[in-house]
Amino acid sequence: MLRIDRTYNIFCCPYKISTERGYQILIIYLLLNRFNSNIKIISMIKIIIDNLQLNCYIITQYLTKKGDKEATCQEPANTQNTTLHVKTIDRHLAQVDLNKIARSSKFYQRTPQKVTAVEFVKSLCNAAYQGIFSYSKVAFLLGLLGINISKQGVSDRININGVAFLKQVLNAIIQDKAGARSIYNAGLFKTFGNVYLQDSTHLALPDSLADIYPGAKNQSRKKSAGLKIQAIFSLFSDRLTCFSLSPFTRPDQSASKDILDCIKTGDLIIRDLGYFVLSVFKELVCNGVFLLSRYKSNVSVYCPETGKKLSLLKLLNKNASLDIPVLVGAEQKVPMRLVAVPVPDSIANERRRKAKNNRDRHCNPSEEALKLLGWEIFVTNVDNTVWASSDILEIYGIRWRIEIIFKTWKSHLSIKQIPERVSSNELEIYLYAHLMNIIFFHAFFDQLNQFIYRKYKINLSILKIAPLFDEIINSLLFGNLLDGNQTELLLEHVILRHCCYEERKGRINYYKHLNHICRLA
């Protein structure tokens, strides 16, 4: 069954509803979630509150009875009684020592504290989820938690120490959620400790932040503000494992070395051309890390045996495809494997048209570069005994997953809705709280997807779940409070009908693609 776990402090309403304060808080909860406050709903509230403690007790007993374990990535649920356990914010945060982080970041300045770390985080996550960030809003949300504080008291905590605190909490939560899952450590990925995707997404900011977060320049020379979120995603755990914020003007090439702090010997990293930096490639290879990247057409390659410079175009004109060892870079001479696979003429011509029409003055492709667009060209240090040349294009295609994740954030999780008139500290605290919400959403989606797959052998689409997240959580909440099993079964049916991948001719979804790679050897 689809069931909510223990206390009803899910995500968009992270507060324990007690008998004493439940009536007041539940009304506010309904209003915040844009329910129509008509007479029928108000009359239902009293019935819900009267039965709240009994329902909490029954559900808690059901979920904690002997032999019924929680579904996690590392330990599957009891398949004879398949139940989805939805973790609350309290339970997510309980895995992290917030008080220790608050002291180390100097968020705690004295003892005792009027606002505890967990209360501060929960109120900020709630405010960020609703897309409203103001001191009075956060003070109101803290008031619902029983903390009597003014908006000035909130303002005093939105400072550089508060930023450091939220950043460390986010990193701690990420590490707690990043446990590896062995089911994808198979097939073409079986020789790697983990497989990571890295990419960035851009957010437009209020122009008032242009001095701190300078954005893209334009012909009008008007100042603009922009920010990049660098993200690293683990295929094995199906979770995000690292975030960083930087001005838009910091290119991906500068962020290429960030992966060195996150990756271990034996891991594989898949990235696009923006991260093509030979000095980083050389360090990764020396550290025993594997990589797969597109080839940059203006980078020289040399024969490992003779040291002579190779002409790729001449080699490709003689051979339809290539799979050869090379030394990449005139100075670095990184030992790599170059693989080139021809693309259909229609795709090659479209690439050339876009390259010629690119308005960026830095992009002025040579005749040779335009001709090389007729091939998919990759460099990797994975041996041909592990990957055949025909495998590489299929493996690189899995990189599209992180693009879908960014699309989910922007289209359905409201991360691009930045409040106006915010300071840099307020912006960073807002974004770190929003990224925590995103981590909680990904954890929820992962649990729901595993539950549906175990029961029906069908995977869910993250792009279809995200816009219905509020409705699913509300259905879980009120289904358990009102008519239980019937609502839960109906919700399962609706999710299967509206949130699964559609079958498309000539295309397979992400999970089928990943499972296919894991079956190949």
The level 1 CATH classification of the domain at 176-407 is Alpha Beta
Strand order of the largest sheet: 5-4-3-6-7-11-10-9-8
Spatial extent as radius of gyration: 26 Å
Report on the biggest sheet. 9 strands, mixed
**CATH architecture verdict of the domain at 176-407:** Alpha-Beta Complex
Low-confidence stretches: 3-82
Shape: globular
Termini gap: 37 Å
Strand content: 5-15%
Q: Helical proportion?
A: 40-55%
Folded structure, characterized:
β4 (225-234) and β5 form a beta hairpin. It is globular and about 75 Å long. The strands form two sheets. Strands 5-4-3-6-7-11-10-9-8 form a nine-stranded mixed beta sheet. Strands 1-2 form a two-stranded parallel ribbon. The model is unreliable at 3-82 (pLDDT under 50). By secondary structure, it is of the alpha/beta class. The protein has helices spanning 22-32, 39-50, 52-64, 89-94, 98-104, 117-129, 135-144, 151-157, 160-177, 252-255, 278-286, 312-318, 345-357, 367-372, 389-396, 400-412, 424-456, 462-465, 469-481, 485-498, 510-519; strands at 2-4, 84-86, 195-205, 225-234, 239-247, 268-271, 290-294, 301-302, 322-328, 334-342, 375-380. Among the domains are: 2-92 and 462-498, no CATH class; 176-407, Transposase Inhibitor Protein From Tn5, Chain A, domain 1.
